[in-house]
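[Solved] Which block belongs to which protein?

Original post:
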Amino acid sequence: MADGLAVEEDSNLRYSYESPRFKVLVTGGAGYIGSTLVPMLLSEGYAVVIYDLFRWGMQPLLNSNLDTRHLEIINGDILDDITLESVVKSSNAVIHLAGIVSAPAFNRYPEIAKEVNERGTKILVDSLKPDQPIIFASVENVYGRSALNLKGPCTEDEECDPLSPFAATFVESEKLVLKSNGVVLRIPSAFGISPRMRLDLLVNNLVFQACTKGHIDLYQADFKRNFIHVQDLAKCHLFTLNNIDKMRGKAYNVGHESLGYSKRQICEIIKDQLPNIRISEPKDEAYKDADNRNFETSFERIKDVGFTVTKSIHDGVTELLKIVPHLSEAEIKKCQAL
C-alpha cells in the first residue's frame, strides 16, 4: 500500500496516510499491556505517542513489529509535569497504563510507588483539555473489604474499600479519572505472551515453575479470582477508545465469568499438559494475597456495551508452554524484573 493513498476498502483504517490522524497518548506504552496494545492502535488507523521510561529497554517495541509511520516515542517520566502536560495537550486522547502495577514492586519502594501511581495520574488529569478522553487501567483489587462477604458477583456499584496500600493508590486514581468523565477499566490477573513478557503474573508464573522446576508451590490454592488474556485486555482498551462516548464517566469490570478460576484449577490445566509435575501447598503466610482476592465478579456492564473476551485459560497455558521452556537465562531475568 503506497503512502498518500486513501484506503476506502479497509474499514479498519479510518484515515488516509495524508490526513491528520486522531492521536492517542499511551503512557507505559512499552509495558506488558502497552506493547500489545500499540500495534493494534496503529493498525486501526490511530497515530500513537508512547510515553515510557523504558526501564527494560526498547526490546518490547522491537518485538512488536510496529508500523512506525504514525508512531512517536518519548522517553519520559510520569512525574515530569512539564513534559507530560505538553504531550497530553498535543494528543486527542490518553490511555493511562504507566505506574507501579504489581504489589511486590509497590511494597519494595512504597513511598515512590505511591507518588508514581497517584501524582502521575493527577498530573495527567490536570493536563487534560476539556472533554479530552482518558482511559485508566485500574485493578480489581480496589474492592477489598467490600467483596469479602458478598453473596453474589461483585458489581461496579460496590464501594471500593481497599485492603492494601497498593490497591488504595488505584482507588485514588480512579476518583480523579471518573471526576474528569474518563473511563476506568478494573483489570483482573492478566496472562499470556506479550512483547514485554512478565513471569511474575500468576498464570505465567505457575507455568514457569512447572517448566523450570517440574514443581509448583501453590499458596491459597482454593482462592478464586478472575483472569484475562493480555490480547483481550489490549482489545478492551481499543474497544473503549472506539466507544468512548457511551462509556464515559463509569468504571467497568473487565473480563468474563468463564475466566473465574481457583489457583488449584489452573494447576490442573497445566498438569493436563505436563502430567509429571508435582504440586505442593506450603502454608507460608508471607505469600498471602494482601488484597484477599477470592470473589466472583459481574461483567454485565462491559458485556452490555458490546465487549467480550476471545481467549481462555487453556489457550494461554498452551501458548505459554510453547515459549517459556525456551527462554534464555537473560530473558528470564528480564521477564522477572518488576
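(Second protein starts here: sequence line, then its C-alpha cells.)
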Amino acid sequence: MGTNSHGVKQNLEHPIKVWELNQSRLALMHQKLAETPRILSRSAGRNTCCIFKVPQSLIDINGRSYQPHVVSIGPYHHADPRLKMIEEHKWRFLGTLLHRTRSKGLVLEDYLKAVYPLEIKSRECYSTEVPYDSDEFLEMLVLDGCFVIELFRKFGGVTAFESDDPLLSLSWVYAFFLRDLIRIENQIPFFVLECLFDLTRLPNEESGPSLRNLALRFFDNAFQRSDESLEKFEGLKAKHVLDFLRSSFIPDRYQEPTQSTYTNTNVIHCVTKLRRAGIQLKPGKEDSFLAIKFSRGIIEMPTIPIDDFMSAFLLNCVAYEQCHRACSKHMTTYATLLDCLINTSWDVEYLCDRNIIENYFGTDAEVARFINNLGKDVSFDIDMCYLSGLFNEVNNYYKNHWHVHWASFKYTYFRTPWSFISALAALVLLILTVFQTYFTVMPYFHPSS
C-alpha cells in the first residue's frame, strides 16, 4: 500500500487498467459486417432457390445419403477427387455429342452461348454461393447437363451405346447413377437441361420422346411404373430431376389444402395398436404410394418397395421439402405416417405380409430403423398436410370404445388357432365348474323327500 499527495491510500498491487481499442479487431468486425453470407446465401430464402446443402442435423442422422458416390452434378461436389473416374467419361460423352450434332453446324462454343443467358438465374437456384467464375460455371453446366442428357438418351434407346462402353458393361455403375442423380446436393436446374436438350436434338428426333419422358424411362426400373402412366407427366413443371420425380408421385386428388379444415390434428398409432382397435391395413390399387385411403376401419396403402434406391429417394425428397419454402410436404407427411405405423420389426413384418411393403433393403429391424430415421427431426403443419383428414378419421375410429374393446378381445383370443383353443378350453372349464358348483349346492337348499 502507498499514499498519494493528498494522503489517500492506493493499492499498488492492483493498478486500474484502462481499456484500449484494438484497431485490427475493430477493422475485422467492420469487414464481417460488410460480408454477405456464403454458406447459406440470401437467395436460399427465395422461391427461386431449389438446390440446397443439406442441414447438418439431417446428415448426422442419415450420413452420406445426400452426397454423390460416383458422379457429381452441379457445383457442390464439383472436382471432388473421389469422383474423378466418371468425370473423365463426362468429357467422352460431350465429345460424342459434339460429333453427332456437327450435322446441325453446332460447335462447343454454341453450347456455351446457349447456356450463358441462364447463368444468373442458375446461380440463384443454389442455397450457397457458387465459388466459380462465369467461365468455370458455364463449363460445368454444359459438361454436367450434356452428360445427364446423354445418359437419358442412351438408356432410353434414342442413342446407341458404344459396344465396349464401360458404363454399360459394368453393371454396378447404373445402380449408382440412379441414386446419385436424385441426391438433393447433386442437381442442376431443369431449365438448363431443357435448353441443352432442345439445342442438341437432331431433326430425326423431333417426333421422339421428350426430356421428361426419357427421364422417367431412365428411372423406370427403379420405380416399376407402367409405360402408360408416364405420358401424363409431360406437362409437369420441374425445378430439377429430383423435383420432377417427386412431383410425378403426387396425385391430383391428394393436394394439400389451401386452408385448414382441422384443428389439433394428431398422428396415428402404430400397426400393433391399430390392429388391436380393429383397424386393418390392406394394399391399395393406386399408382402412387402417396394415395392412401381410410374407410370403415380399413387403411389402404399402395405397395412401396423399400430398397437402396427408394431409401435414397425418400430421404432426399424429405430433405428437399424441409429446405424449400414453397414446396409441398407430401413426402414428409408420408414419412411421418410410416414412422407412426412402424415402431418395431413386428410392425414391418405385418406390413410385408399384407403386401404394403416389399422389403429388398435388409432385415425387418433394418427397415424399421430406416423408417424411424426418415421421420426424425422433420417439421410440417399437420393440420395443413394432405393426410390431415385421414389422421383425424383414424383417430376418431380408434377412440370408439366399442370398436376398441371388441377388437381387443378378438385380437387377444382369436388371433391364432392356439389362442382360440385356449380360450375355448377355459370357457368349457368355467362352464363345468359352474355346473359342479350348482349340483353341489342345490341339495342344501332343496333336500329330497
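Accepted answer:
You had them paired correctly. Confirming on the second one: The mean pLDDT is 88.
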